[in-house]
Amino acid sequence: MTELNYPMTRTDQTQCRVAGIEFPDPYQWLESNTQEVLQWQAAQNCLADEYVQSWPNYGRLKTSVSNYLAGRTNAVPRCAGERWFRLGSIQNRSGIIISDTPYGAGRLVYSIEREIIDTPASIPWFSPSPDGQLLAVGICKDGSENNTIRLINVETGKSLPQPPAQTLMDGWMGGARWLPDNSGFYFQALVGEPEKFQQQILFHSIADGSQTQIQLPQQDPEGHDYILMMVSPDGRFHLAYQGLLEARPIAFRDTEQAGSQWQTFVSEQCSVTGHVIGNQLIAITNLNAPRGRVVAISLETETRSDPKTWIDLIPESSSVIRSITPVDDLLYISEFVDTYSRVRIFDIRGRLVGEVPLPGKGGIADEVFFSIQNLASSEPQQEYIFGFSTLCESWGVYRHRLASDRLEVLQVPRITLDNVVVEDHWAISEDGTRIPYHSLRLAKTDTSKPQPTLIYAYGGYNSARPPEYPGAIAAFVKMGGVYILGNLRGGSEFGKVWWQGGRRQNKQNGYKDLYAIAEDLIANNRTDPKKLALTGASNGGLMAAVAMIQRPDLWQAIVPQVPFLDLIGALHHGYGRYCVEIELADPNSSDDLQTMAAYSAYHLLSHDGEYPATYLTAGDTDPRCPAWHAQKFAARLQAANKSKSPILLRVWENSGHGQATGRDSLVTQYTHWLAFVMRQLGMEVSARCVDDGKATAPKIPMES
């Protein structure tokens, strides 16, 4: 393999000092945005572009990626004032559509084209008022997810004067949290510069356009953690949930009480998330139930904060309870059973009354951080509407009505992968734990010999990766590759024990789980190290980089996407420090930091290592894992690597962590790193591989 001429990268003697410990940081200068850094970055981008685009199959791959890239259904249509609101486009204009039925013909009440900017804009969230007369919309202008609020009169389409001027970090908390009387809404906004990542809760009044800051008992004093506000359907009870990974209502207000002050609510370190029904909070908790149980908490008693007074409705079982959706007087309970979704229906007393006939084995469209994000849509429901996909079928939207006990298709999955096989497997990790993983391949694949294989995994932050549609990676499968989805400890697929088993001092368990999957594939002759690639994003990018360093013998190619790689340096940045605090270590503990440094990829690199081919990708507006993580790691790896394997870095303009990146940019980004992987694995792209991936006719009744 021809050696590449990497851009010259200087080093210095800078030390990073944290909790009394000094760590060498010779590339710290790459964290700045100087002309020197920008020129270095441009040279790295040019090298990556030339290498990837020189692959003869690049053009065909890009066509296939565009065909198979299907957006994840994070937000199903929302009903307000007997009308339906959804993201969509009409006559090549994108924005929010309003219609009489979930996907009926309608009109564009807000078009993103009205934003006069040079870069592609996106809508991280939208929230109609309960009466459907007003619409709050978050607008991101640079791919970062940072957004500002627009307020729209639904009837006229005109903007309201005096919208909040504050910047929101993202759309994770649902943006505007309206009061039932439509008089205003709560929202969480950044304080000062976004880089500091300090947030506060505000209430916006529609009447005069003013904002009032809300002070809550037990609130994170640094303002780093996420807080989601919830108001009961009748407006009486206001709850404040805190905790991205393990949310609980920290504060409570009963507006019928004299004085109506915020009071301390749940103080236990546990998850308690649910909905107010009547005078009770019907909630999922992992307190004394790692896989979750459903309880009823009276909001009218002084003992509401005492878990001993909570009434069990649905006990813990072998399944993992994910979310509650109240529909009329029923509870639709979403669960995991061996990583696959299941939805059962209970009455308000906890008695099982039915089960939703899902359209296949796959995953409900939960949010990434389900504990708090699945509360982002708390309006009362009259029917159960949900997004769903499988490994071989992209996202569709469905409706279930218990009276007819049938599933209706509201939006047909755009892509169905024909002539493919999905298989479930279990590997055995070093300590004997069974680790599930799933494979997706063409039916004609020769399983008697090793095949080009790509593993994707995450394993962290109490976040699950269920068997759902793999997006652009479907192009890799249609071209003869085998896709592997691994479910590592550190995620939430099997409840709190599974999360804690790969968290903080147990973080290495998740990496061992990954190696067990790779070794199981190799031992069963499904692949070999010359045909095996690995990718992951964010925390999964850290996983990929650590795996490259700890077990370079297992991989031919590694792709850390938007990665979190310098865990020590991250402590000097607001969001980075937050990520470390909630999942990895106590930043003030030298012992914790020494443990964390053992899997800080930037610090693990050896100067005499022989590493596999590596492609690092990052976004230049990413506020979560800034591009300097990938830049510093790439510089150190290019200097340290003793093999001739290519080490490439690509930083994309006007691109963040992925959620607000434009589709055209995503197509190019996926094509780049998939082309790199396929080139390393010796794969070809024939004309037959480039097809439309059209959906087959649904077997479930369509919306009438």
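The above is record 1. Record 2 follows with the same two-line structure.
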Amino acid sequence: MESRWNDQEAEDSLARYAAYGPDLALRIYSARLIGADPALVLHGGGNVSVKTTGRDLFGAPQDRIHVKGSGWDLAGIEPAGLPALDLAGLQRLRGLTELDDEEMVNQLRRHLLDARSPNPSVETLLHAFLPHRFVDHSHADAILALSDQERGEEFVAEAFGDRVAALPFVMPGFPLAQEVARLHEERPEVEGIVLHRHGLFTFGETARESYERHIALVDAAERFLAEAGPPRVAVPADWGAARHEAARRRAAEVAPRLRRALAAHLPRPPILRWLDDEELSGLVAAPGARELFLTPPLTPDHTLRTKNLPCWAEADAIDAAVAAYAREYHAYFERGCARCGPRRELDPAPRVVLVPEAGVFAAGPTAAAAAAAADLAAHTLRTKAAASALGPFRGLDELELFGMEYWSLEQAKLGRGTPPPLAGRVAVVTGGGGAIGEGIGAVLAGAGAVVALLDLDAGRAEAAAARIRAEHGPHAAFGLAADVTDESSLDAALAEVLRRSGGLDVLVPNAGAARVAELVEEDPAAFRRLVEVNLTGVFLTLRAGGRILREQGLGGSVVLVSSKNVPAPGAAFGAYSASKAGAHQLARIAALELAADGVRVNAVCPDAVFRHGDNPSGLWAEVGPDRARSKGLAPEELEEHYRRRNLLRTTVSAEDVGRAVLWLAAEAPCTTGCAIPVDGGIPQAFPR
């Protein structure tokens, strides 16, 4: 590992944060350097601090400490993420012989200089008790590879000599702060402190000194590991692209069954993330993988994201493996309560599932949580494999893990609150790159769903997904190429949805095409093409999606985007109206056939939607001029014509369609076989 310190970037940070003073400006810069390296920290891990001076409300000098606040990630930290506390007040706490967690948090809140600040790190006192101006803490993979060993103490001593002091694992909080301060007073010359099975602290009088000490020690650990020889668990020699591709196919088959098995132990179905990584799928298939990987996490902080152990599941025994994991988790919980006192049991479902035939799955209540578990799982597997060159892995015992998993201060990091209506749900929208498709996707993503936009034009689908992600978060949506008239194309796209998200809950057949022509003038080939897209495409979508919903066994919702033209067709629009009517009838039949599987099938019937934001409707761009001529209008008069012809004199938007889809998908548990107009009120189209 090499230092990423760059003098020009440091100067840029000094200029950007000049109002906060040079110490905090450089603290932000070096914190981001640490946070940007996944080999050091992941998903909010690690913390940093800087001691500064200022003046209190009365103008008197005041020593302060800025520490990373709860909810902030080092990679993008800003001044608000480094709340200031009264340093002298915190240091007085060093004189106490004990301080329980709740009172410690109370003291940290009492010593904040701004009551609006986020809660400072639970390790704030550790930072405060050390004398140095800058302190850095990470969960570096290489440090954990050395310390999480049966001979970890020996390896740390061999790798670093007198450069570091080391501590066995101590529960974070006041006891750890006291131990680190005591150890540093005994060894004031050291560059850092290794906390076995926890990570590394370094310190210095400048941001650069503390950061570069950190990098140098991690580099020394990496070099020591590299010289240890070949790992005992490694990717099989015959593993390669062909076997990984077989694992990819197997993963799509396994995902809905795994999701169903996990859902039996959770308040709602999880989002899954399959790790599409040739090395990782090879590691899980390696000899000795089960014994190495069914071990505690690298650091106890990971238990919040990954539980204390992964689940090992053969592809043909998913249900039994997950059920056995849940039973053992409950037994572990009972053992922990017997020794630590009563707790409220968390769900017993695994967060990481290792399937030797298919690779690695991560699970979470949201896509972001699944992605975090996936990242931690990837680093854990790679680090354990590399560290197997040193000897047997040894993590924390289950009592220590229980203490961390059920520690109230760590649980607070996960947050609480009422989930949105589609939290944990996966939605697929065909024709997703178009105006209506994007509008529906945006509404469903806003309600908590992970949205897959499928479109013949992959670039347009991904552009729409990118706009949804910009509004609703980095995991809200993704775009995929799919031709709804081609079975293999549609199956391949849905298989990728299963690998990326684990299953399917809301299916929205929306892809469509239109054409303006009177029946006597219609081109038979063009008519057949519209039937192929609007009717056969819906049939293939219902067929492929229905199979997934049935196999998954979790119910679900299908909402067809039908049309106002089904109950109220228009002249010179025969191919569109007839093919849409056929699709509408297929949805009614699907409602009959899928009801036994708990799948509701409904339809929305919008009138003309011309755009969603800056995304114009491809359908109306193609047929709009001809449609205007058929009505005796200029093209620019068409939108106003559609607005004025409905009873509410309103423009129907893609969001309006999306809200109707959302209601049917999330708020209408007793409704199936229904069609909802979304047209502003067209009397000829009133349901009857």
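The domain at 426-616+652-678 is CATH 3.40.50.720 (Rossmann fold).
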